[in-house]
Design a protein that fits this description.
Strand content: 15-25%
Shape: globular
Number of strands: 26
Low-confidence stretches: none
Helix content: 25-40%
Largest sheet: 7 strands, mixed
Mean pLDDT: 92
Structural class: alpha/beta
Length: 748
């Protein structure tokens, strides 16, 4: 056997050939969205990447995760097969027939991937209960790695949020009951030295002068931690304060915690790795004080689910202030926990920190009291519902009950499309079937490539023991589709729900309208599902690893869908014609090119130093008699469409934000009840149309679309290259971008 010891690299000759043969399927917002979101800075060239360079980086970063290459022992035949696979993946992604998640587009193939393999995964889940840190990259020095600590889930959450991932976390009663009572009241002191550039603002925020304090106090009288200027330092500082409140992790009953923040970089300094600028220590000071106050206020008592959620929200708020990215959290509480369900009605706390998570409640298929949930949704769009019973015991609904399908599931990612066990991440790749069909791809081949791509991600290096254990066992992947409505309407001439028939619920005796699905679409979707499962089985056998516990999903999409110009996930287009508004930092070099091409640009009315650009957009099949938009499709059809995909396509879950009109509010509870044995997660929002000034999406008429379109001339990419000599700026701040339609998940 020949031994190949080099990693796979795609030749420039091959890439040039692809560029000649394939034209990327850019949507109307596609190239602009790509350039400002996923094009990384190339220092030696003084510019950001072009699309062919991004795809090369991403595919090479993924293909080289194959464990046979990592071990540098692979046969010539296997090596050559991987090279061919890399080439096919390159063609698939370059043409925008498919893409990995936004996280992969940003991180794959970079040195950051090697240092932080976690960063390839969009989102995570953690149960909020005392847990051991184990053999992880972060273990506070006062703890044994096998000691269960209240801080651990919050440290996991803080770490993943700062790496750019979203985090779902569970505060259901069975978890919260495991948290011991707060039995040590803690005096928190935050020190800062005069040599810090942040000295004055930190003193104002509540820190104290380090030299003065040390001159009058004994540092050994309590727990002392000098926080390094690192992500890990912030995490351990917070853990030190939290764990001091519990005798299990503070057996000496030390009443004082002293944290020295002098070394933390000042506000505005650059952050390496992900990019962005530092917040300075003030948001950290505020978070530490707020969490310490919350715990002290509960002295002698056990924390409630609301308290536990507040701590997570305070952490999320701090990550946002760090100016690296948005925080994405989903708090999962009990379905009968009224304090949790109504916690956002406290407006002061909502504006202070409770905005930092979307909130859902965990139910099972026997739960039937949906009306209070529906009432709350009509008032504020929350909570969503997550059916853990279905997630644990079903893959696709059509495959039937299986006690061992996914028994360790405890929650979900923030967008709700992936059911997850404790410490586990989602792992996403999406196919745009309508684009892939246009470009001549066999869909089953495209989905097989997606399965293998996501499988390799599970062989990345993961920082947390709890994650490594879950990933090695489950090898969970999430192959998704976007542009589903476009594909169905174009290829079959109508929507998947062809009508409704009368039916009777055998458990409740209630009558309801049962959806009728086109059997041809059912068969097509089932064939695509099987191609993913078969590809996973074959590759798992090759790699001698577990087959994936689940394989398919529908992610909500967002920024990635804009690249190809397709409808987002399973969602219906917002309108057949619309104005899409995208916000840019006012120094963004794309703005002059957009202005030169005639796009309307005006100052953002909500945010300083931000410009708002209008893009006229026409949906696929906009003039079809069978076209439906989020503004006119019924709530019943949306529920039925989600149920179709959960039944025949997704063995994980289907992310869907159902939009409803005011008069449809009365249908929410009955529809939740109707689909209680089918739908694993659901969230709803009232349809807002153009109710807000400079709304992100504004429905318009065809005439207005044509008028706006007539004002645009030239090509933005060409104009950008001419005006900037293809040289743009480094470290721009991104505004209002997310990797999903709901805005729940970050992009990078």
């Amino acid at each position: 056997m020949d031994i190949i010891k080099t990693k796979i690299e795609l030749s420039q000759e091959f890439i040039d050939q692809v560029k000649e043969e394939i034209k990327p399927h850019w949507g109307e917002l596609g190239w602009v969205t790509y350039k400002r979101t996923y094009a990384r800075w190339i220092p030696e060239l003084g510019r950001t990447e072009n699309w062919d360079e991004t795809v090369k980086r991403v595919i090479e970063g993924n293909i080289n995760l194959d464990p046979r290459l990592q071990a540098k022992t692979i046969s010539t035949q296997d090596y050559n097969e991987l090279v061919d696979e890399a080439k096919n993946l390159y063609k698939l992604v370059y043409g925008l027939s498919a893409t990995p998640s936004g996280r992969n587009l940003w991180i794959s193939g970079t040195p950051y991937q090697d240092r932080n393999g976690d960063a390839l995964n969009n989102c995570w889940f953690i149960a909020v209960r005392p847990q051991k840190y184990g053999d992880s990259h972060i273990v506070p020095e006062y703890l044994d790695k096998d000691t269960k600590a209240v801080s651990m889930p919050y440290s996991f959450m803080f770490d993943q949020l700062m790496k750019g991932g979203g985090v779902g976390f569970s505060v259901v009663p069975s978890n919260i009951e495991q948290i011991p009572a707060v039995d040590v009241k803690t005096d928190l002191t935050i020190l800062i030295g005069k040599d810090s550039a942040s000295y004055d603002e930190s003193i104002k925020a509540g820190a104290v002068d380090r030299d003065e304090w040390l001159a009058n106090n004994d540092v050994d009288a309590g727990r002392f931690y000098k926080m390094p200027d690192s992500r890990e330092g912030w995490v351990v500082g917070n853990a030190t304060m939290i764990d001091n409140h519990f005798s299990e992790t503070n057996p000496e009953n030390t009443a004082q915690v002293v944290l020295d923040i002098t070394d933390i970089r000042a506000k505005g300094e650059k952050i390496k790795g992900f990019g962005g600028t530092a917040s300075g220590p003030v948001p950290l000071i505020e978070m530490l004080q707020d969490i310490n106050d919350l715990l002290n206020d509960n002295f002698g008592k056990k924390l409630s689910s609301v308290d536990a959620t507040d701590i997570g929200n305070m952490i999320g708020k701090t990550v946002v202030a760090g100016n690296v990215r948005r925080s994405a959290e989903l708090a999962l509480g009990g379905a009968e926990d009224q304090d949790f369900i109504t916690m956002k009605q406290d407006k002061d706390k909502l504006y202070h920190h409770r905005w930092a998570s979307n909130n859902s409640v965990a139910v099972d298929s026997m739960f039937n009291d949906y009306q209070p949930i529906a009432d709350s949704i009509q008032h504020n769009g929350e909570p969503g519902i997550v059916n853990l019973d279905l997630s644990q015991h079903y893959g696709r609904i059509i495959d039937g009950y299986n006690e061992d399908a996914d028994p360790e599931v405890e929650g979900t990612n923030p967008c709700g499309e992936i059911s997850l066990s404790n410490g586990e991440p989602c792992n996403l790749f999406e196919i745009f079937p309508q684009v892939a069909s246009k470009q001549g791809w066999n869909l089953e081949e495209a989905f097989a490539l997606a399965a293998r791509y996501t499988k390799r991600v599970t062989f990345s290096t993961y920082d947390w023991e709890v994650s490594r254990n879950a990933i090695a066992k489950n090898r969970r992947i999430g192959v998704s589709m976007s542009g589903i409505q476009d594909w169905i309407l174009t290829n079959f001439g109508h929507r998947v729900v062809t009508g409704f028939e009368d039916a009777v619920d055998s458990e409740t005796g209630e009558t309801y309208k049962k959806p009728i699905y086109d059997p041809e679409i059912v068969k097509e979707v089932e064939d695509m599902y099987q191609s993913v499962v078969d590809a996973d089985k074959e590759y798992s056998d090759t790699l001698h690893c577990n087959t994936s516990v689940k394989h398919t999903t529908v992610k909500p999409s967002g920024t990635v869908a804009k690249l190809a110009g397709v409808s987002e996930g399973m969602h219906f287009h917002y309108s057949n014609y619309l104005i899409q508004r995208i916000r840019f930092q006012d120094t963004d070099p794309l703005l002059p090119a957009l202005k030169a091409c005639g796009y309307k640009i005006e100052p953002d009315v909500y945010t300083k130093n931000t410009m708002c650009v209008e893009f006229p957009v026409k949906a696929e099949n906009a003039d079809s008699d069978n076209f439906a938009s989020a503004g006119n499709v019924s709530i019943a059809e949306q529920f039925a469409t989600q149920a179709f995909l959960q039944t025949y396509w997704s063995d994980n879950a289907v992310s869907c934000t159902v939009t409803f009109q005011p008069e449809e509010g009365k249908e929410i509870a009955p529809l939740m009840r109707q689909y209680r044995h089918i739908t694993k997660s659901t969230s709803l929002l009232p349809y807002s149309g153009d109710a807000f000034e400079q709304a992100p999406k504004e429905p318009i008429s065809k005439a207005k679309y044509l008028e706006k379109l007539s004002e645009i001339h030239g090509d933005v990419a060409t104009e950008f290259a001419k005006e900037n000599d293809n040289h743009d700026k480094k470290d721009l701040n991104l505004v209002d971008q997310s990797d999903c339609a709901s805005g729940a998940c970050p992009i990078r």
